[in-house]
Amino acid sequence: MRVDPITFEVVNNALIGVAEQMAATILRTSYSTVIREMLDYSTAVFDREGRIIAQSCRIPIHLNSMSRSLRTTLDEAIPIEDWNPGDIVITNDPYKGGQHLPDVQTFLPVFSDGELVAICGTLGHHLDVGGMRPGSYAGDAVEIYQEGLRISPIKIFEGGALNERLFALIEANIRQPAMTIGDLRSQVAALEIGAKGVLELVERYGVKSLHDCMEDAIEISERRLREKLRELPAGVYEGSYYVDDDGVVDEPIKIVTKVTIGDGTIHVDLTGTDRQRRAPINATISSCESAIYFAVLAILDPSIPANYGVYKPIEITAPEGSVVNAQPPAPVVGRNAITHTIVNALLMALSQAVPERITACYYGMSNVYILSGDGEGSHPSWILFDIEVGGGGARQSKDGLDCYSQGIHNLANTPIEMVEAIYPLRFERYELLPDSGGAGRHRGGLGVRRDIAFLDESGALETQFDKFKVAPFGLFGGEEGATGSLVLNPDGERPVNLASKTMHHKLRKGDVVSIRTQGGGGYGPPAERDAEAIARDLREGKISAEQAERYGTTGR
Amino acid sequence: MSAIRMGVDIGGTFTDITVLEEESGRVSIAKVPSRRGDPAGALIEAVERGLAEAGADRDSVTLLVHGSTLVTNAVLENKLPPTSLLTTEGFRDVLEIGRHFRPDMYDLLQDVPRPVVPRDRRFCVAERTAPDGELLLEPRREAVEALFDDLRADGVEAVAVCFLNSYVNPANEAAVRDWLRQGLKGVEVSASCDVCREIREYERMSTVALNAAAMPLVAKYLEEIAPRVSAVLPKAKLLLMQSSGGSLTVAAARDYPVRMVTSGPAGGALAVQRLGRATEVEHLLGVDMGGTSTDICLISGGELRMTTEGEISGRPIKLPMIEINTIGAGAGSIAWLDAANGLHVGPRSAGAEPGPVAYGQGGTEPTVTDANLVLGRLHPERFAAGLKHLDVEAARRAIEEKIGAPLGHSLEQAAAGIIRIANANMERAVRVSSAEKGYDPRDITLVAFGGAGPMHAAALAKAVGIPTVMVPEQPGVFSAVGLVMADIRHDFVQTRVLRGEEITAEAIAPLFEGLEAQAQEALAQDGVDDGRREIRRLADLRYLGQAYEVSVPLAAGPLDRSAVDALVDQFHVLHRQLYAHSHPSKPVEFVSARVAAIGLLEAPRPQRRAGNGADPAAMDRRPVYFEEAEAFVETPVFNRLDLGPGSELTGPAIVEQVDSTIVIHPGQSARSDDYGNLLISMAGANP
């Protein structure tokens, strides 16, 4: 180690504190519900070479996004020697290290006495970045050009001065400019707070100590992950799993993972995975890597600080032109169907190596739905972007969690009263779905039902759901969780089942959209379930009497 | 004899009592062991001891303020009585689903806290209110009555009621509440519109569910203690401490027990506030370091900072409470190495049992106290008034073996490292409570209390850039002093979302008028005369589209156009102060009106004392390790009792007293002020 362990611990804590301070600024001052209620944003501090050191990341899929984007920006667009004090670089380009267009990233170089000492970064999911559909979730896009404004890395501030023409260009290309621009301002404010925090550390410990601490942080995380890997039985573990369809062509998409654990190394090979689609389901390499980094860290040791060091022992092979390493101009906004499925495939693969550390399959999708009003009635046009979660996979020692964020995303729901106060919508139901958890010695978590009445004159619904056909798998004898569904007017005369990837379905006043999310898979044979747990589930109405019979009991 | 006020604080180990003579401002303190299973017995014993200690007549005691962790512990230990919940049809699971955000991103094996009311005790009724207050569907009385048997099945003692959008118009909720009260005899009923009339259904539901569940518990407790208190203190009014720093009458405590949930550290915050008002220091940061945790609070301009975003074990409580940042770093925090030999301190604590290694009670893992002992900061024989002998050798061995050897560090380096990391943990929390709130550390005085606070404060202040540390006269029991300083307080809130042009005097004035009428009513019920009533107004504002509000104080007087303009201007100023930017041209949204009803109890100020400024003589000297010297330095040790107003000390120095030990580093200096506080100056020049 370059610094003594005590200074290291103190400085490292402080760097994480800086990232958290940036995050607090964004949370408190942003405008769109996507960021402020759903917490879809992240912040980070990088060393002067652009390697990630500390992050306040609330969403695992953001783990690697900023790292890759910054790397690509430095290598392909704006070399480090062209960054000057007061510059801020902006990008959202999925083919320059990003993941999908709504994730707008900003980077600020921190200088001390003319010397670059660190880079601060933020990522925020913006409500709208243009394109053919509100919320920039165009389920029928066949090329990225239809998905919205693509901003290749460019300086939005230069020497402290805002590039106003660029701002105007962005404003002219998006639907809700006030919100997006407001959120951008809050991202800029966070960068400034971050720079201040880094400079305080420089003042106290000096540039050299700070850099030494950063180097050490990387080394320690790498070492800890390698040690953890050495504890695992070396071998090859395989897991394959499917996405329902791409929303355009009704064929499942296969994700193949082959995990090779060697002496302090792990190789994840996705060879055999299906080719990229002409539908917005594809994942760029950045999305794919984030999913793998998350799964490996969560399964092996959640306590290792996630920085550049943990990326090093993980080798990834993702065939170019496949859905896990899409090439332009493939559309990518719905990449999470792929990334969630990668995580679930890895849970399956590693269940053979560390059955006590994994879960059965969880609901498996960031169930995105976007409701919008087109402004034809008395309301000005509006967009609501929201996400719902489902049941967690059961674990070796306990049940899966009912309706709780899992896997590569981590999102809070938006309070019903807040939505109703702002949008012409009325909720009719928000309830757990009995029997949706896969039966097992430990039961899979329950999905949820959310019914929303549309009160505006006319508008539309877009969704990016999955696991409507491919059920969340159980493990070691545990049963599958329930598939999800989307029903229009469930209690009306003619309920209509909608597709998981619904595109611009017209809504009229009084329509009710009913979302039923997926349950988690069970773990272990149902016959081995504890009688008391079955009785409790029955009492609480989490399983029905019929379901109880599948456990070989009537519960009485 | 002058009026006497008493404060009693029932903690896990000790029950502390504070006796305040109102006229002279004299404070005396006593301690008795707490009794598990018989808190009331310990309370009465403490009262008797306090009377004896102060030589006071029981008939002259006018007030007994009680700080209780009854509700807190019941929540933390999952021992709340069985409770039912009645909510809008279709929304049975809001309480269980919560916000479904996981605090730990990676841990696949994590659990979620069980909901306060399990699913089989949650029931629904067909009813609906629109977000503008229109009653879309009124509940049918027969439907509610049909649920009576279910609601009280299995020995349920309380029912919570929370309907969607009841914060706008509580008519449906209030009607059902009244039917339940009439029909369910012997069952406590609590409605969300009475407890917290605020937007965000899950947070409001969580608050009212906790309130209902705590009601039977608190009712029973009060029934037990109230007559016993009046038997020993016939003229005293009994009040209970709440999380907001105000006190509650017995009747209010029965109805709103959830207000007491985080009242534990409130006493310390009030004591700091009192000190700030007496010494006229503008910004004070209270750092209360105990055995397992440290509580940090900021007092600015004599006022406490409040928040409505509190929680207890993962369950939100949407009520005003003193903003206190609690971190798991205390004197008993355990030092440990991770797989990569990274040194950490806490959050695990050795607690009182087995305690630090030096206690010799079976503790094997080195703690912060062990490190302080090894470095010579604590005296092995004089710790805790000599009640505990500390085993220096055992502490040395543990630090050497568990930390020093694996790191290749000397014993001193390892021990100093433990202290540095414990301080760094606190430092982060101090920044959150000061710099991040827009306060410049150079303008702040750090008030160090709790048994361990004064040992760490000087190093902590230096690291954060705070120029002065203030150590009160009795830092170890300082929190208990705060209890007797509490005013009576009730908080009322009503959400009404108004945008831009809609924010007018005509729209806002009736909101405040309604709340103020409730406030006056509550104070009248508490028997507070007009002359001792204070009504405070706050308005929660945000920029249109933001999700979090800033609470802006509103002056008393007529709510006319200029008052509304001033309110909006003040919002921009506060937003800038808090978040470093503001947008005076952007539309503002009004979210909630808040009114605090205060019954002033006229806390006497600490008394000034004259002194000759004589410099005390050291009682002995011993080697103490200071990191800045990287060596043990022969250091004079003083007795706090030998310090009088004006006494001056130069660092390095140790000041010992019965309830704490103060460390003054090389290059620092200290002086006693006229209130008996010791002021440590970082710069060296006397403050």
| Percent range for β-strand residues of chain A | 15-25%
Cα-to-Cα separation, first versus last residue of chain A: 63 Å
Going by helix content, strand content and strand pairing, the class of chain B is: alpha+beta
CATH A-level architecture of the domain at 265-486 in chain B: 2-Layer Sandwich
Major sheet description of chain B: 9 strands, mixed
Q: Residue share in helices of chain B?
A: 25-40%
Radius of gyration of chain A: 23 Å
Oligomer state of the chains in this structure: heterodimer
Largest interface: A-B, 81 and 62 residues
- Count of DSSP strands of chain A: 20
Shape of chain B: globular
Number of helices of chain B: 17
Strand fraction of chain B: 25-35%
Could you tell me the radius of gyration of chain B in angstroms?
A: 26 Å
Give the proportion of residues in helices of chain A.
25-40%
User: Low-confidence runs of chain B (pLDDT<50, min 5 residues)?
Assistant: none
Question: Could you give me the name of the CATH homologous superfamily of the domain at 265-486 in chain B?
Answer: ATPase, nucleotide binding domain
Structural class of chain A: alpha+beta
CATH topology of the domain at 265-486 in chain B: Nucleotidyltransferase, domain 5
Just give the CATH class of the domain at 265-486 in chain B: Alpha Beta
Mean pLDDT across the residues of chain A is: 92
